[in-house]
């Protein structure tokens, strides 16, 4: 999905131009890593490409020189907003876990670590660009909620890639004793397992909202919009009940725009 048609695009429209440019550069970095992890290239090739990105990132921090165009586009934001190298590398760690052997029925603890790497890291980088480095707990908690929603939406797509992010505890509780992604996808108890994960996602959204109340909404409107959009997506998934995982409900562009307008109005 392109940035223009995604929730990300509409959320970033709420930012001042300089911060918006930085966020789109961060989006480009994330998208580049995601494309490597999801490509059809041999595993060794994908590992090597991620290793090159890691080395290029290290060289950028140590010398200020960058030959990779995607990282070069992000480098001004790294300097201006003091983006932590550890968080940029954590995202690479998450992509490597997909390449080295996709998660298949992980434990809750393994899934939480994965969410922290692929989503929490982005949140931790974004809040610095937004100008709210104090919002770390909110960013990590919201990142987990967003990633769990993505997992629930993309069960079928992930299964085609040999991935099964639904945790083993949820599968066992639903009575699903086989852990092959394809087998789980067609199992009659799949909705029950997804409902358990959905409850965890809703709890994370509630915790993120509570933290937001504590720290205040200032400069966090894009994140608030993402939260509102994904909560609506999760509600749609629950309404459908995962009976047809091959065709998950998706929010229309108009729906995303309407959410953006409501969030912007509430923050004005």
Describe the structure.
This protein is mainly α and 268 residues long. It has a single domain, classed as Farnesyl Diphosphate Synthase (Orthogonal Bundle). The protein contains 13 helices and no strands. α5 (85-100) runs antiparallel to α6 (108-130) and α11 packs antiparallel against α12 (221-240). The longest helix is centred in the C-terminal third of the chain and has 26 residues, at 190-215.
Percentage of residues in strands:
under 5%
How would you name the CATH homologous superfamily?
Farnesyl Diphosphate Synthase
The biggest beta sheet reads: none
Distance, first to last CA: 30 Å
Structural domains: how many: 1
Structural class from helices and strands? mainly alpha
EC number: 2.5.1.103
GO molecular function: geranylgeranyl diphosphate synthase activity; squalene synthase [NAD(P)H] activity
Protein name: Presqualene diphosphate synthase HpnD
Keywords: Transferase
